[in-house]
Design brief:
single chain, Rossmann fold, 2 domains, 5 strands, 13% strand, coenzyme a biosynthesis, EC 2.7.1.24, nucleotide-binding, Dephospho-CoA kinase, Depp_CoAkinase
């Protein structure tokens, strides 16, 4: 059996990449979510969690022994050196998790969904990149509704992510998600057929 090629799927907050990912799963495509991998590597009993506790102290654990993400976030966003230490520890482990899960794929191609595909260097694991894009007013509206967040909070997140121009510069394919769900389903089905025709992700 030939090894599946890897499609990177990314997009800014509120672009609808999760909806697109779900539609690809409906098409039978094997999919790995980088956010899930980031959570798996710090589960209780995993070496990464022990290293984090050793470094930051037990104050970053909940009573259940699980990582207190909010407490950790406060520590690392206040201190760039601490954030770098954490990224140096976790990025290779997250990469290993992603690679292991992608290796289990039995579809002709597999998808790596990552909001930080470009920024984190995870793009190196892929042969092709699909960017889900949406006008900024739609990103704002969707995220405010979903997260019950203020416009200021959402705008700050949009600014912290790679710029739209930066993401689009890395795109092989762009899906502008500014219409209804039925249209999106048809677009994903069309892209899926196109991807099935590719060898190693290239036409």
């Amino acid at each position: 059996m030939t090894t599946p090629w890897i499609l990177g799927l990314t997009g800014g907050i509120g672009s609808g990449k999760s909806a697109v990912a779900e539609l690809f799963i409906e098409q039978g495509v094997h999919l790995v979510d980088a956010d899930h991998a980031a959570r798996w590597v710090v589960e209780p009993g995993r070496p990464a969690l022990a290293r984090i506790v050793e470094h930051f102290g037990r104050g970053i654990l909940q009573a259940s022994g699980e990582l207190d993400r909010a407490a950790l976030r406060r520590l690392i966003f206040a201190d760039t050196a601490q954030r770098r230490w954490l990224e140096t520890l976790l990025h290779p482990l997250i990469g290993q998790e992603i690679t292991a899960y992608l290796a289990k794929a039995d579809s002709p191609y597999a998808i790596l969904v990552s909001p930080l595909l470009v920024e984190s260097g995870q793009q190196a694991l892929t042969q092709r990149v699909l960017v889900v894009d949406a006008p900024e007013h739609l990103q704002l509206q969707r995220t405010m509704q979903r997260d019950q967040a203020s416009a200021e909070q959402v705008e700050a997140i949009i600014k912290a992510q790679a710029s739209r121009e930066e993401r689009l510069r890395h795109a092989d394919d762009v899906l502008i998600n500014d219409r209804d769900t039925q249209w999106l389903r048809e677009e994903v089905a069309r892209l899926h057929q196109f991807y099935l025709s590719l060898r190693g992700g290239q036409s």
